[in-house]
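Table 4 source record.
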Amino acid sequence: MVQLNLVVIKTNKQEEQVRFYSTLGITFSHHRHGNGPYHYAGELDGLIFEIYPLSKDATGPDTTTRLGFTIESLNDTLKDLVEIGVETVQAPASTEWGYVAVVKDADGRRIELVEKLIK
């Protein structure tokens, strides 16, 4: 069995990213490991999600990685994201995968939001 347990994004907009991902419901702590850089970390049901600063030699953050999150209420979350200036790329729609929208995080990564299905 394989289970994903760590996702790290690197950015030059740490505070904006923390605000974005906190709006999705992730609670972050700010810390560092040994002599490494200060970063933010949050846990999602056994998955550690970290926001690190870009390395000094990086020209910019990766914007090609697409992430997806299951959330409680898509409409409420989108309202909160719009209030902090987040761009909606794909308006909410019912699909075969559920009620889905796509937004951009502070670096421009496309983030898929899916409303949790009630069983």
